Amino acid sequence: xxxxxxxxxxxxxxxxxxDAGFGGLAPLxxxxxxxxxxxxxxxxxxxxxxxxxxxxxxxxxxxxxxxGVVLGKLTRTFKVPGRKIGGSxxxxxxxxxxxxxxVAWMYELFIRMFLVLSPIEIFEFMRVAMEEGTRTYGGxxxxxxxxxxxxxxxxxxxxxxxxxxxxxxxxRPFCAACGQWANEEWFMPRLSCPxxxxxxxERLEAEDYGVFDALTPIARxxxxxxxxxxxxxxxxxxxxxxxxxxxxxxxxxxGAAHFTDREICAGLMVxxxxxxxxxxxxxxxxEFVAAEDAAxxxxxxxxxxxx
Length: 307
Ligand SMILES: [Zn+2]
Prior knowledge:
This protein has a 4-stranded antiparallel beta sheet with strand order 5-6-7-8, covered by helices on one side. The chain has a two-stranded antiparallel sheet with strand order 1-2. It has helices spanning 25-47, 53-77, 83-115, 119-130, 144-169, 197-205, 272-306, and strands at residues 133-137, 140-143, 174-175, 180-181, 183-191, 225-232, 240-251, 257-269. It has 2 domains: 17-169, no CATH class; 180-306, no CATH class. The radius of gyration is 27 Å and the shape is elongated. The protein is an alpha+beta fold. Helix 1 (25-47) runs antiparallel to helix 2 (53-77), helix 2 runs parallel beside helix 5 (144-169) and helix 3 (83-115) crosses helix 5. The structure holds zinc ion.
């Protein structure tokens, strides 16, 4: 769910440069779609010999995963940051995999029927064909609606990893000026959050960076807190994108704490003034963590001496 605070001033938020990186699209598409066709065919040819459902699922996920990882890597190599164009390519690659798997499967059936003169196999094929079914799992042939559902699930297993892994690869902000993705530079996972987190997000959006001064690092305790992440272009340093997550804490009857993350501000562009104040907060964070580490190593030393 997108928090309301984000629509107060959309100009303050990072937007994916959908129009950048078209130069790398042709080689990216060529390589990824070729790989998708090859792995789809491999899946189709191998899966028909698998009677174990789990192995089949693992193989589909594995093939989809490999295409997804390669798409993600090549997307970064060829610098194609657009979500719409990259997402379309991911969907297309998933479709090519499913299609290639079907072609390989039908090819196998054809060869078997005409070249392998095994009456048992032909009988088996005819029986399956008569029932309008194909796959057999545990002695049960899948037909009609069940078969359609299985095919849909199979297509999902092949295609969904491709899409998800691509989304992951382009998750960070892209600096169109430098042609590179930003790095996650500062991560402050435990900050006290005075007041309503949404109000804080609204103030940040209004460039009221004084709110950073009110935030303080806290120890690992069971209380609501705030996580801040700043992603930055390492070359020009003018793309600074902040993400804030409010963490709610609930303790159940057994005494176990449950933390729930709620993104209150995603991809907020921070200006120079904000960066200066954020830098001060980062210094306080570093000091706090150093003191915490020192206290911990002191405890460790004591326990060693006790032994
Ligand atoms: Zn840059």
